[in-house]
Amino acid sequence: MVLSEGVLFRNNENAYVQTKRKLLNECNLFCIISLPPKVFLNAGAASKTNLLFFVKGNPTKEIWYYDLSDINITKKDLMTTQQFDDFFKLYNPKTLKLSKSERAWSVSIDEIKKKNYDIKAVNPNRKIVEDTRTPKELISIIENEQAKIASILKELKGNL
C-alpha cells in the first residue's frame, strides 16, 4: 500500500490512532519503506510517501523499516528499481524480515504502542552531516569566491 507519511505519524486525532491500531492488531505490518520526497511528483503528488507491506491474519510484533528518503528525486532523475537492490539483498521473504543495515532497522510493537501508534520511519542509523566550519572560515571561502568572480567578470568585460 502506498500511504502519505502524514497518516503514519499523526496520533493527535483518534481516527488515525484507531486505524493504525486496527491494522497492527489484524495484520502483520512487517515492513515500511520510506520513499524519497517528490517520488510521485510527475504524477502531480508532491507529498512524502511510504510503502507498507502487510499480511492479514496475525498481529504485528515488529516492523522492519527501510529508508530511501535521502535519495534526491527530480523530474529528470526518477526513482528506479535499481535503488531497491540493497533492500532485496537484505530482505528474507521466508521470515518477512530484513537484515539490519545503515538503511534498515526494526521497531517492536511495544515501542510503537508507547509512541501512541506513531509508525513514521525515523532512521536511528542515519549519520547527520554537520558543517563544522567556523564563521571565519566561511567568510574566507566567500571572499575567495568573490575574488574569483571579480577576476572572471574583469576578463569577460575585457573581451567585449
Notes on the protein architecture:
This protein has 5 helices and 7 strands. The mean pLDDT is 89. β5 and β6 form a beta hairpin. The strands form 2 sheets. It has a 5-stranded mixed β-sheet with strand order 1-3-2-4-7. It has a two-stranded antiparallel ribbon with strand order 5-6. The protein has 160 residues and is α+β, with helices and mostly antiparallel strands. It has 2 domains: 2-114, Vaccinia Virus protein VP39 (Rossmann fold), CATH 3.40.50.150; 132-160. The protein is elongated. The protein has helices at residues 5-9, 14-26, 85-90, 109-114, 135-158, and strands at residues 2-4, 27-34, 49-56, 62-67, 91-92, 97-98, 104-108.
Query: Separation of termini?
Result: 60 Å
- Uncertain segments are none
Instruction: Kindly estimate the percentage of residues that lie in beta strands according to DSSP.
Output: 15-25%
Output the structural class.
Answer: alpha+beta
Q: Based on CA inertia axes, which overall geometry fits? A: elongated
Name the features.
two-stranded antiparallel ribbon, five-stranded mixed beta sheet, Rossmann fold, 160 residues, alpha+beta
